[in-house]
Amino acid sequence: MKPAAARGGATAEATILVSTSPGERRVAFWRGGTLEQAFIERPARPDGVGDVHLGRVTARVPALSGVFVALEGDLSGFLPDAQGGERLTEGTILPLRVTRAAQGGKGPRLSGTGLPKDLSRDGPPRLLRRGPDAALRLALAHSRAPLLSDHPAEAARLRATLGPDRVRLLAGPAFDEAVEAEFDLLASPEVPLPGGGRLLVHPTPALIALDVDTGPAAGRDGGAHRAVNAAALAEAARQIRLRHLAGPILLDLAGGSAASRAALLPALRAAAGPDPLLRVVGLTGLGLMEMVRTRIHPPLHEVLGQPPSPLTQALAALRRAAREAVARPGAALALRAHPRVLAALRGLPGALEDFAAGAAHPISFVPDPALTPGEEVIEDAQPHAD
After folding, report:
1. CA dist 250 to 16, 106, 187, 211, Å?
2. What's the CATH number for 188-296?
3. Cα distance between the two ends of the chain
4. Phi/psi at 249 (5° precision)
5. Closest Cα partner for 43 from 65, 66, 21, 12?
6. Are 108 and 101 in contact (CB under 8 A)?
7. What is the chain's mean pLDDT, rounded?
8. Domain residue spans in the chain?
């Protein structure tokens, strides 16, 4: 099957695909048949990057060279001295922009520089302005790429900012099987490599560990072994970018001496070149390739949970139900799932309202403790009607 971009008639060389489903928005930058950037957003819980807040300084922390700032909703952010926090005292109220989303158990990183002087400085901490979402950020970064959306309201929202000529409303899904497969892979800790090898992704609280498993190539000649390692370099850089992995990153290649691994550093740097946030540091004493990437957006494993959280499973099931509702407009559907999955879905504002807006009937819930998360079933509601 051709990529969604080609089916929609736009060039596949650079296309922004926006797939909207109840409670979730998935955005892909697709170029030449390859996924180059990926975002998964829950509009009810935006990551906040680019948001402008009115904040109040609550404490100076000399050891961290910055100040903590109270934001709307009992949220606390950190403003470094280098980003406008110097000489601020407790109680100071000022507008601030979120430059790094809350992640890893830490609050958002803030900046007070580069903001308009006329922003409000009165009143309690509050959100002044939302930052752009992924589709708008990609549209700004790739000014010639068309946007293809599969949701009328989403297409209208994007057209209001980008103009009617740049946004196209598709009759079918924005993601075809190829794009869906790429997004499914982003939720997995294993990435297949040519020749039967695997790249294993292991996030930890301290760092991201990437490991290369040569698989069947382990018993072949050295050339096959080296080929898997070479493929792993390019795929590691790509997965780091797609998954928004950040902070310290260590890559353990399969076998080889320290000298042979050091010889592959130029190839890793070339693979990392398109990502301005990623820097290759070098080789550690244990022969691990060391990288570091600037934190901005939450890594996908935090968005999705690892293994996928009950909410992620619930939204995937609701996405399937939405497609079923379109295929069977007269059907009353039920979602049978573990109670934790149903509770997570009820707890996400807007998701069920989004489903009801696009379906003839609201979806009903059937708790089934025998089903583990990931085994959700979409069925006719009548046999389980209360």
Report:
1. 31, 22, 20, 8
2. 3.40.630
3. 42
4. -135, 130
5. 21
6. yes
7. 92
8. 4-43+133-181, 52-129, 188-296, 308-384
From the list 121, 107, 100, 109, the residue with the least C-alpha distance to 76 is 107
Neighbours of 181 (CB within 10 A): 11
pLDDT for residue 9:
38
Mean of pLDDT values over 97-122: 92
> What tens digit of pLDDT does each residue of 305-342 get?
988 999 999 999 999 999 999 999 888 999 999 999 99
pLDDT digits (tens, 9 = 90+) for 230-284: 999 999 999 999 999 999 999 999 988 889 899 999 999 999 999 999 999 999 9
Residue that wins the pLDDT comparison between 271 and 225: 271
Minimal CA–CA distance to 252: which of 302, 315, 209, 307? 209
Q: For domain 4-43+133-181, is the CATH number 2.40.50? A: no
Q: What is the 3-state secondary structure (H, E, C) of 180-242?
A: HHHHHHHCCCEEECHHHCEEEEEECCCCEEEEEECHHHHHCCHHHHHHHHHHHHHHHHHHHHH
Architecture of domain 52-129: Beta Barrel (2.40)
